[in-house]
Amino acid sequence: MSPAAPAIRRDVDLRHLNTFHVGARASYFVTVTEASQLQWVLQWQQQQQIPFMLIGQGSNILFKADYPGLIIELHHRGIEVVAETADHVDVKVQAGEIWHDFVVYSLGQHWYGLENLSLIPGTVGAAPVQNIGAYGVEVKDSLLELEALELATGQLRRFTNADCQFSYRQSYFKQQGKDRFVICAVTFRLSRHPRLVLDYPALKSALTAVAPDQLTPQLVSDTVCKIRRSKLPDPGVIGNAGSFFWNPHVNQQQFERLKAQYPHIPGYADPDGIKVPAAWLIEQAGWKGYREGDVGVHKDHALVLVNYGKATGAELVALSQKIQASVLDKFAIQLWPEVRIV
Ligand code: EPU
Fold first, then answer.
1. Rounded distance, CA 282 to CA 326, Å?
2. Bridge partners of residue 72, in order along the sequence
3. Does the annotation mark 230 as catalytic?
4. C-alpha angle with apex 74: 311 to 91, nearest 5 degrees?
5. CB atoms < 10 A from the CB of 152, how many?
């Protein structure tokens, strides 16, 4: 064993390592703090011929059963300016940094572009995988490049923004690159000058009373935090993983048919079609505030499934399937989980 080899623990309780706080156990668990350890750990896992998965803050995962392999918690830390001009800075951030802490740090340095993405749970390394997005901004808007370990070769590979093939909650790392790479560090290009994005309806209306010269990235960040706290339950208090489903896209014809039947249906045009809020569909199907034992649909946001205490992953999956069936039945729209079910 090399001196840098981290301790691999057996039969580990995952309850505090997933924001749904469901009880599940991993056969093996390891915390990795630097890239050299990661290579050693992956060699060990291949020798054992067991599956592995990466975990950051466990904020987008639902364990429906025990995990029969090795869970690797990435803890690489570090923030470094790698280039700068009068207009922007390029900041390289290690994968294990906590996303929101990095957003707060960047604002403190007067580096702008991430303010709308405040308070999103998770790590920096996980952010590009599903192209996290909120309040009109996505991580792809400021990601310059990233570094990922290719499992087949053990080589570090560089991906430009275009290589990552980002789209709504999607990237190369969830498609062709799935299970083939571990993202180790991400470089962001942040602006030294505020460039506020205020089009998202909830954000716009929260800031209407503010005079234009008072609008700052810090205020935008504070407002986003306030909106999120008012709508989304704190996973520290009630187990949840934010939005459970993707917002589905329909085509213009489908949307017009729906509109004829449900004149108030919201829809937002984007390059993939018309995005209909899944929360609206779920609320109209009568699920908002629903509770059955310790599983439920949050009372303030219909897209958030919650664990009130002792719910199991299997119970949450069962509820999500009932919701999918009822939305399909009422609107002929299939919802797909955004949360990764393991
Ligand atoms: N709505 C309802 N009922 C509800 C909640 C919302 O009908 O209970 C309708 C309203 O029409 C509202 C619309 O849904 O205008 C959109 O709601 P919201 O602004 O809360 O956004 P969302 O579409 O539900 C998405 C992301 C969130 C992100 C917000 C803000 C997805 C799957 N989710 O939610 O991301 O914070 O926009 O940009 O795209 C997450 O991924 O975990 C997450 C929280």
1. 8
2. 30, 54
3. no
4. 120
5. 7
pTM recorded for the entire structure: 0.94
What is the separation, in whole angstroms, between the first and last Cα of the chain? 30
Domains and CATH numbers, the chain: 9-74 (3.30.43.10), 79-231 (3.30.465.10), 239-341 (3.90.78.10)
Q: Tell how far CA 311 is from the center of its chain.
A: 22
In tens, the pLDDT along 11-43 reads 999 999 999 999 999 999 999 998 789 989 999
Identify whether the C-beta of residue 334 lies closer than 8 Å to the C-beta of residue 288. no
Are 39 and 54 in contact by the 8 Å Cβ rule? The answer is no
Out of 61, 117, 243, mutate this one to test ligand 1's pocket (max ligand atoms within 8 Å of CB): namely 243
DSSP codes joined into one string, 164-232: G--BTTB-GGGTTTTTTEEEEEEEEEEESS------SHHHHHHTTTS-GGG--HHHHHHHHHHHHHHHS
Residues making up the chain, counted from first to last: 342
- Give the whole-angstrom CA distance, residue 102 versus residue 123: 9
- The two beta strands, 52-55 and 67-74, are parallel
* Token representation of residue 155: 């080589």
* Atom 36 of ligand 1: nearest residue by CA position: 134
CB within 6 Å of ligand 1 — which residues? 134-135, 200, 202, 231-232, 242-243, 246-247, 266, 277, 279-280, 283, 288, 301-303, 338
Nearest of 71, 70, 179, 55 to residue 121 by alpha carbon: 55
Active-site residue, 169 included: yes
Copy the structure tokens of residue 284. Answer: 């109209």
Q: Would you say 111 and 192 are in contact if contact means Cβ atoms under 8 Å apart?
A: yes
Residue-wise pLDDT for 215-269, tens only, equals 999 999 999 999 999 999 999 999 999 999 999 999 999 999 999 999 999 999 9
Whether 9 is catalytic: no
Q: Which one of the listed residues 169, 180, 192, 340 is annotated catalytic? A: 169
